[in-house]
Structures are given as C-alpha cells and as structure tokens.
Design brief:
16 strands; single chain; 8-stranded mixed beta sheet; alpha+beta; 2,3-Dihydroxybiphenyl 1,2-Dioxygenase, domain 1; binds zinc ion
Amino acid sequence: MNPIVGLHHVTAIASNPQQNLDFYTEVLGLRLVKRTVNFDDPGTYHFYFGDDTGTPGTILTFFPWPHARRGTPGAGEVSHTAFSIPAGSVEYWHERLTQKGVLVERTGKRFGGREEVLTLADPDGMKLELVAYMDVPELTPARYADVPAEHAIRGFFGVTMLHRELAPTEGALNLLGFVKVAEEGSRVRFRSPDGAVLGNQIDVVVDPNAGWGRPGAGSVHHIAFRNQDDAAQAEWHEKVAPHLGVTPVQDRQYFHSIYFREPGGVLFEMATDTPGFLYDEPVESLGEALKLPTWVEPQRALIEARVLPITMSQSSAQLNAASKKEEVQV
Ligand code: ZN
C-alpha cells in the first residue's frame, strides 16, 4: 500500500478576495497557481496559492466569501497552519512582516530548540506559523515574488489541531499511517514514517476546557493528505471506509478527492498528486485567467458577473510590460 507522505493542501475561508490575494502573494511571496471557482458553489472564487508550479504539499487554498463573518477559533478545528522557512530566515521574515504592518510574534523554540516559530495572522485572522528549521526541502520559489529565493517559504511544515481529547483523533491519524513521534507540554506530534519533509507534521494540542470553534472567515475548512494516484486513493478508500464515512471520488479537475471527518471534528480529504495545476494553463501564466471545468463553463458569463474583479500585481503580463518599457528606454 502506498503510504501517505504528508499534506497535499489546506483549504480555508476568507472574506475579501483582493485582500486575500494581496496578502499571500505580496506579503508571503506565494504564487497564485490557480484562479477558479468553488465547484460546489460556483458563484465563489477558489484561489490556490503555492510554490512556482503548485507542488503538492505547498498549496494553501481559499474560498473567499466577501460577506463571510469571522469564525471563532476553538476545539475541533485546525488552529494553526505552518509553513517551512530555512533556519537562517527568521530575522528576514520578522523584519519583512513588521515592515508590511503585519503583527508577528516570536513564539520561541519547540522540541528542544530544533524549530523556531513565528506566529502571525492573515487579514481574516487565520493563524499562520513560519517554522524555521534545518533541512528544509528545496523548492522552486514563485517566479514573480519579491522574496529572495534563499528565504522563500518552502511549502507546508504541517498543521496544528486543537482538541478536547487526543484519543479519537489519534486513532484516525494512526489509520492514515501517522504515528506519535514527540510530545511537549500539551502538544503531541504525529508524522508519517514514510513521509516527505513537506507537510508531514501533524500536531494536536489538547485542552479539555477549550470552547468549540465556529467556522467562518479565517477558519480552516479542511486539510487534504496526498495520494500518489487514483489507484493509491482507491486502496485508501477501502482502508478508511469501514471506520469513517468516506465520500465517493470527487473530480476536482487538478486532483481527485475523497472526504471524511475525523472523530475530533476536522474534515479530512485525500487528494491525488495528479493531474496537477499545469493541466489547463502554461506555467508562465498560472493563476492569471479564471479557469472553469467543462461542466461549469456554460455558466461562465454568470460567474464572471458575480465574482468581484481582482487585479494581480505580480504576473506575466506585468513582467512583459516592464521589459517592454526597458526596451523602449534602451
Ligand atoms: Zn480540498
């Protein structure tokens, strides 16, 4: 059986789409690798941010609902989504975020000093962490971003879930091949022994007295684990189905997905690495046009009239315009 090697993507709820786009591209230096709509609610955008090509394990996605109310953080949810940064990049990120007016907290070191953590919130209050450690994976940074390559975000470190009790969620993680590898205070870390470095840290913080979270803008909607391909997903479907209610396979255009809820309340997905984000547009202009699957395409005019227009400050069009200007000056 093909092991799960880590997270494929994390999907969260946002409010204003332009604000969301600007924060993740201009502040964090990720690339908008796909601009599409929520296939279950086609009047809403679905943005995918990632590294240069949208490598599985780097992809943070959003449903921006312009009038969404903020969620209330609490138990039964993903509380923090963590990105990897190189060990020497803490000062760079602290300064960059501060200069851009983002409140950032030096959370300190975890697990014997192996990891140094910066904590911040996105414009909708979603809690993010930048985790600096040795041996970050090499990745291709977003081509139009202004973050120097040596400091660029390397994809997901992992996520932290807040739960009132550990056992039910631990059982679900064990079923997926994740095992307990470390414990520090109320934080328990799970990892897939056959996993990649990318997105392979699933932490559970246990607080028996925590209030229940209520979803809204700034909340994580679900987390997705990687399946190598459709055959691997079919095997995992069979393995999970006797224990947790699993949906049939959903065609998400860039991957195929199954969903189930772990007993602690967090929605889990399994998503295939294939076919990926280069499926319907070239790498140079990823994310620049609204892409719709064939079954939603007939509604394009309606959708374009309904979603708020957005502008990208970093795109192939901007780059072409800038180089043309230079040519003229020469
Ligand atoms: Zn998903």
